[in-house]
Amino acid sequence: MTRVLLLGSGAREHGIARALCHSGASVSCFASNLNPGIMALAAGFELGELNAPQAVVDFATRHRAELAVIGPEAPLAAGVADALRAAGIATVGPDRELARIETSKAFARDLLVRHGIPGCPRYRTFDALEGVTDWLAELGDGYVVKYDGLAGGKGVKVAGDHLHSHAEALDYCRELAASGGRFVVEEKLIGEEFSLMSFCDGETLRHMPAVQDHKRALEGDCGPNTGGMGSYSDTSHSLAFLDDEDICTAHAINEAAAAALHTECGAPYRGFLYGGFIATSDGPKLIEYNARLGDPEALNVLEILQSDF
Predict the structure, then answer these.
(1) pLDDT in tens, 174-213
(2) CA–centroid distance for 155 within its chain
(3) C-alpha distances in angstroms, 90 versus 27, 50, 285, 307?
(4) Across the strands, what pairs with 196?
(5) Which CATH entry fits the domain spanning 3-92: 3.40.50.20, 1.10.10.10, 3.90.370.10, 3.60.15.10?
(6) CATH number 3.30.1490.20 is the correct assignment for the domain at 122-187
(7) Is the model's pLDDT at 309 over the cut of 90?
(8) Which of 93, 96, 115, 246 could connect to 81 by a Cys-Cys bridge, CB 3.0–4.6 Å?
């Protein structure tokens, strides 16, 4: 029986715990909040600081963990995966440098461009207001403003949904610049969004079924963006608005991105690679990358996993 450290306390982590237990693992969970579902499955459960690498390593050592699975993104940004691997514990989750695919929107966009990976909209990166007005004028009414770092799904504002004029866009850019934050202003893509996640062992990718999640809070999608209000998938492992070519394109982009990360960072990508795509009239384009399983999309795919986790 493999002893596994699970990091995190949300619905996603409950789904991971169920999949691990179904595979015969003994799970010990280090969490920031209580989760009765995980607690009912776990051999050990402790509250602590998820973003403190040494605290996580100490917990893993006490529970003699042979494998660690990192649920949320913040511990990846804090270097928890690096610390666990340095302690000799096999870890599902990329090192901090590789996790920049999620923690920096600009890095992800630049990576695609540098390696000729398709699916990238027109974009520019700023850390001040200089040049923003001219770039917005070039984009017209179709633009998106993204905070460069982690924001729990709340750092992206889209023209027509959250921003209704260039003046409002400039106000948001000014707010980001004043807080010392870099930001990306990019072309708005039109189409249906979907998530395509892949298991990565450092050499090979195994792709999960396509899922669509819905991020806006409140009835009628009239609230702010969240990390995800709900998601759905289909028995076909695809979605009604996608064809086989769309799925193949998304697979190819994920594979190319993992290879590009290995080339640039000098280390293999081991963990989950989550491509947030949009199916446009010109084929799938990439909205963003995440370096972990989607929450709630993980629940759609892990419940139908037939092999061991």
Answers:
(1) 999 998 889 999 999 999 999 999 999 999 999 999 999 9
(2) 14
(3) 14, 17, 33, 19
(4) 275
(5) 3.40.50.20
(6) yes
(7) no
(8) 93
